[in-house]
Design brief:
By secondary structure, the chain is of the alpha/beta class. It has a single domain, classed as Ribonuclease H-like superfamily/Ribonuclease H (Nucleotidyltransferase, domain 5). It is built from 7 helices and 5 strands, in the order βββαβαααβααα. The chain has a 5-stranded mixed sheet. It is globular, with a radius of gyration of 15 Å. The chain starts with a strand and ends with a helix.
Length: about 160
């Protein structure tokens, strides 16, 4: 089975504000581009959601996957094992627990390695993801980022079961 290469990026116009994610998936001769925009979100949420959605696209478990992203937030959380410590502490006082929990459901199903790439440095696929993410944030059919909206309420931790 060929290796799967994924590029992701997230964007927010204002932080928070309208945002979106962009994804490029490549395997052998196959290529797929995905994007989606949201009415109210943050850049970090879109960076993480891009990775989650990309991994959820994979049909074969235990795929060998390389993920390239310009998000230190995502790369460091996983590669430095922070997210696994956050999970043990039930994400107490951590942002985006809904997305991190969703990530932790899909991540172990594959053999994933993260690579950080400098944003806006002429990496063709990263630049494509950036354009997809920004364009998605301007679309008319923006979705609500329910996890973000719920996290803004005073009893957010109760709603998330934390």
């Amino acid at each position: 089975m060929p290796e799967i290469v994924i590029y992701t990026d997230g964007a927010a116009r204002g932080n928070p504000g309208p945002g979106g994610y962009g994804i490029v998936l490549k395997s052998g001769k196959h290529r797929k581009e995905l994007s989606q925009g949201f009415k109210h979100t943050t850049n970090n949420r879109m960076e993480l959601l891009a990775v989650i959605v990309a991994l959820e696209q994979l049909k074969v478990e235990k795929s060998k996957v390389k993920i390239y992203t310009d998000s230190r937030y995502v790369v460091d959380a996983v590669e430095k094992s922070w997210v696994f410590q956050w999970e043990k502490k039930r994400f107490k006082n951590k942002k985006n627990p809904d997305l991190w929990q969703r990530f932790l459901e899909i991540y172990p199903k594959h053999n994933v390695k993260f690579f950080w790439v400098k944003g806006h440095s002429n990496n063709v696929e990263n630049e494509k993801c950036d354009r997809l993410a920004v364009e998605a944030s301007y679309k008319a059919d923006l979705l609500e980022d329910i996890g973000y909206i719920n996290s803004q309420s005073p009893d957010a931790n109760l709603k998330l079961g934390i």
